[in-house]
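Fold Annotation — chain and its backbone
Encoding — discrete vocabulary of local shapes
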Amino acid sequence: DSINVQFFKFNLIGPALFEQPISRRLRRVSLSEIGFGKLETYIKLDKLGEGTYATVYKGRSKLTENLVALKEIRLEHEEGAPCTAIREVSLLKDLKHANIVTLHDIIHTKKSLTLVFEYLDKDLKQYLDDCGNVINIHNVKLFLFQLLRGLSYCHRRKVLHRDLKPQNLLINERGELKLADFGLARAKSIPTKTYSNEVVTLWYRPPDILLGSTNYSTHIDMWGVGCIFYEMTTGRPLFPGSTVEEELHFIFKLLGTPTEQSWSGISCNDEFVAHNYPLYRAERLSNHTPRYTTVLHVGTQLYYT
């Protein structure tokens, strides 16, 4: 799984205006301000996946002959475009970076809103599956670097991704990794702003969010980076819980059960108290990944940042 990655010059940017979440009553106005393309410009080739609100197709542009990914979002007459779609469009219009998937076009019809993205061959989960869950250390470093660079750009622009997981990291044939699926992303103006705690797939969700906190900042993404980093180095998820209780148990067993001394106010948290977790002592991450002790030094720095 040898890879040659062409690194791009990091363009520093100045302070950006804070994005604001779009309310339902502003969706129609927001959509009217966006320039739309034409559906007939693209040819659908294969279905790549389907979710509750959207279906993703592999396609081709008739204008450029380039492959594209068509994210077709079904519109409900009563609701209009889903909040996640408006949020994704609003953010991606202004996020231009080598490690963030490019939004090429937007197509609006009565029945659907189609987002046209650059096409990348696979996601990190598929990449792991294809190489037998064993990625050589060189490529782990390349992918981690690109993930951090793309995320750094987002955070400089005051944008939280909030849903980092291997399925949302796309990789092309040149080994370039790009952040995708900004449907849950949020622009943040104040680090302690109250958001929903129902974000981030369970395995990549930090303990304070699992315990009900809605006050968070960039750490929600950095926890996900650490979990993905471990998964790349070992080929298995770090905290594969099937419920919130089990997820927290996995976290505490490895990193130590929090106490009032290490986490002020934890003894008053109803979720924490209700499950009466055993008092675990923190273990060394290197004990779980003996082959990757050197690279896990980077992970330790991330953990304590």
Remarks:
- Residues 137-156 form the longest helix (20 residues).
- The mean pLDDT is 79.
